[in-house]
Amino acid sequence: MLWRTRDRPCLDFPAPGSADGEGARIVVLVSGSGTNLQALLAAAADPAYGARIVAVGADRKDIAGLERAERAGLPTFVQQVKDYPERTDWDAALTAATAAHSPDLVVTAGFMKILGGGFMSRFEGRIVNTHPRCCPPSPGPTGCGTRWPTA
């Protein structure tokens, strides 16, 4: 099976799968309302999708994205930068909390923090970013509008 976007393959390799045969295990990271998470939940409800969301992590407490995950019966975790003396300590905690769910893929769905080197190394080749914040030509939450203004 190929990962697909509508009718076209978007990744030209078989989807990773867990040993239990239920498809790729996805951990989703959110920072806000979770609208991207909701789209992923809807897609993953179709068995043909080939993946399932196994946990949702956040960098903030009391956000709608966590409420969406809880309503879907998913485990959640929160790692706030302010709770750690150094940014590298936060990165290590986020890495460990994510790894605890044994993901095949990590999806940053509107996650508004820059992931550290430890996280990137641990999940190298398995991170899908759905937000333009990390795209150098158009950084920040308004990146798409800045880079591709409407006519």
Task: Give a structural overview.
By secondary structure, the chain is α/β, with parallel strands linked by helices. The protein has a single domain (17-147), classed as Formyl transferase, N-terminal domain (Rossmann fold, 3-Layer(aba) Sandwich). The chain has five helices and seven strands; from the N terminus they run βββαβαβαβαβα. The protein has helices spanning 35-44, 64-71, 87-99, 117-122, 143-147; strands at residues 2-5, 8-14, 24-30, 51-58, 76-78, 105-108, 127-129. The strands form two sheets. It has a five-stranded parallel β-sheet with strand order 5-4-3-6-7, sandwiched between helices. Strands 1-2 form a two-stranded antiparallel sheet. The radius of gyration is 16 Å and the shape is globular.
Give a nutshell description of this structure.
By secondary structure, the protein is an alpha/beta fold. Helix content is 28%, strand content 24%.
Secondary structure elements and pairings:
Elements (H helix, E strand, L loop, with lengths): L1 E4 L2 E7 L9 E7 L4 H10 L6 E8 L5 H8 L4 E3 L8 H13 L5 E4 L8 H6 L4 E3 L13 H5 L4
Parallel strand pairs: 3-4, 3-6, 4-5, 6-7
Antiparallel strand pairs: 1-2
CATH class: Alpha Beta
Give, in spatial order, the strands making up the sheet with the most strands: 5-4-3-6-7
- Sheet-strand content, in percent, reads 15-25%
What is the count of distinct domains? 1
Terminal-residue CA separation = 38 Å
Q: List the helices and strands in order.
A: EEEHEHEHEHEH
Q: What is the CATH H-level superfamily?
A: Formyl transferase, N-terminal domain
Overall mean pLDDT score?
A: 82
Could you describe the largest sheet, including whether it forms a barrel?
A: 5 strands, parallel
Shape from CA axes?
A: globular
Low-pLDDT runs? 1-14
The helix count comes to: 5
The CATH topology is given as Rossmann fold
SS elements, strand count: 7
Fraction of residues in helices? 25-40%
**What is the level-2 CATH architecture name?**
3-Layer(aba) Sandwich
